[in-house]
């Protein structure tokens, strides 16, 4: 037998057979199924990663990478702040005071949180706030509100906005809630309407005065870090036992766990498309084996080994599968480029920070998809190849 018998037979069996057109059609359907499956998987995984990353960016900004919190009242103070700034010069710190409030404008009422901050320090740890306060000077009882709240209440700059605090103060024979009117000085837009509606910022001194807090006492310290998962360990070692530090991810564990589960479920479901296409590979190869039984028996009688026959049909299935995977990769990457570049699918600006789809295909997901599809293709081609190598020469030749 010639050494090139395997590639020769693979090319021959891939040709269109006028007498048995359904074999070719079945192979073509398998090719198209794998192509579509890989394309959809690549775009779907890129889409999941893109939205995941966008949410992480926004949650990191509005929840802050790290936050130092007290375990009991008075534990976070000016002395602790100065100590941290000296020990960690690469990190940025912003002390804050916060209170849950009800915001009232006319007949409109909305719940949320009011943060008292030093705007210069807060601008170093919050890029959204830094953009909003550019060229704006804040005085006592000035407030920075979110775009969603501004649109809901139809607020204009320098307009008075009433804040009702949940803490109460005695008044004669009863207690009354604390109420204060603040002047709207600027608007911030984080891209997430829930934060834009719930969060407001005023000066640190203003909120400390309303809450009757000493000027050197804080409710916590916002910390900006480029590597929060590493720096949180260093901070824990440096902090006194009366305080603790939390990372932004610790407050959103369930949310991102749900995203990961959704991503894994989507991967499994879409991989079934490739699995269904692989069934066409099996049926196509089995039909080829049944149609070529006489040729296979003749080849074996002329000296071809069972291993060579097995390789012919194994390679035949792999060629169909790899062609489908390659076409799927080209279409998938092209689709990702087009969808992420052009505004084909428009996203609402009040919900998402961009009007184009946020697509981000990771190298890990790419290789998982390609390797998973390849394993399915090889597994699908193995059984027909094995059946082809087990053809009984005497029985087939006698019947033929």
Automatic annotation (TrEMBL):
Question: ABC3 transporter permease C-terminal domain: which residues?
Answer: 268-389
Question: Where does this one sit in the cell?
Answer: Cell membrane
Arranged from A to Z, the UniProt key words for this protein are: Cell membrane, Membrane, Transmembrane, Transmembrane helix
The entry's protein name is ABC transporter permease
User: One GO cellular component from the entry?
Assistant: plasma membrane protein complex
Q: How does it sit in the membrane?
A: Multi-pass membrane protein
TM ranges are 21-48, 266-291, 312-342, 362-383
Q: Which residues belong to any copy of the MacB-like periplasmic core domain? A: 28-239
Q: Which family does it belong to?
A: Belongs to the ABC-4 integral membrane protein family. LolC/E subfamily.
Q: What's the chief localization of this chain?
A: membrane
């Amino acid at each position: 037998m010639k050494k090139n018998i395997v590639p020769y037979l693979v090319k021959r069996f891939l040709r269109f057979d006028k007498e048995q057109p359904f074999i070719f059609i079945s192979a073509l359907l398998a090719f198209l199924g794998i192509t579509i499956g890989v394309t959809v998987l690549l775009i779907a995984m890129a889409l999941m990663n893109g939205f995941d990353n966008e949410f992480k960016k926004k949650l990191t900004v509005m929840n802050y990478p790290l936050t130092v919190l007290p375990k009991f009242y008075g534990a976070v103070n000016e002395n602790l702040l100065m100590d941290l700034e000296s020990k960690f010069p690469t990190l940025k710190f912003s002390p804050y005071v916060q209170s849950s409030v009800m915001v009232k404008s006319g007949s409109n009422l909305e719940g949320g949180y009011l943060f008292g901050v030093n705007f210069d320090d807060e601008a170093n740890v919050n890029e959204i706030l830094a953009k909003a306060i550019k060229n704006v000077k804040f005085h006592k009882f000035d407030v920075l509100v979110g775009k969603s709240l501004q649109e809901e209440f139809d607020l204009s700059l320098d307009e008075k906005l009433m804040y009702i605090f949940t803490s109460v103060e005695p008044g004669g024979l009863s207690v009354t809630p604390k109420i204060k009117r603040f002047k709207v000085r600027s608007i911030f837009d984080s891209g997430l309407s829930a934060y834009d509606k719930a969060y407001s910022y005023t000066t640190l001194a203003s909120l400390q005065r309303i809450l009757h807090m000493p000027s050197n006492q804080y409710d916590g310290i916002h910390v900006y870090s480029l590597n929060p998962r590493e720096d949180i360990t260093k901070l824990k070692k440096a902090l006194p036992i009366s305080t603790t530090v939390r990372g932004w991810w610790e407050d959103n564990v369930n949310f991102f766990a749900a995203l990961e589960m959704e991503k894994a479920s989507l991967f499994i479901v879409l991989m079934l498309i490739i699995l269904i296409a692989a069934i066409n590979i099996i049926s196509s190869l089995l039909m080829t084996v049944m149609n070529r039984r006489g040729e296979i028996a003749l080849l074996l009688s002329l000296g071809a080994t069972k291993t060579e026959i097995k390789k012919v049909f194994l390679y035949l299935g792999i060629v169909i599968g790899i062609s489908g995977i390659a076409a799927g990769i080209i279409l998938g990457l092209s689709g990702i480029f087009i969808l992420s570049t052009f505004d084909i699918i428009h996203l609402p600006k009040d919900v998402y920070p961009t009007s184009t789809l946020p697509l981000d295909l990771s190298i890990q997901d790419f290789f998982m998809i390609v390797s998973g599809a390849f394993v399915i293709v090889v597994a699908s081609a193995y059984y027909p190849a094995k059946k082809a190598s087990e053809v009984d020469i005497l029985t087939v030749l006698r019947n033929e």
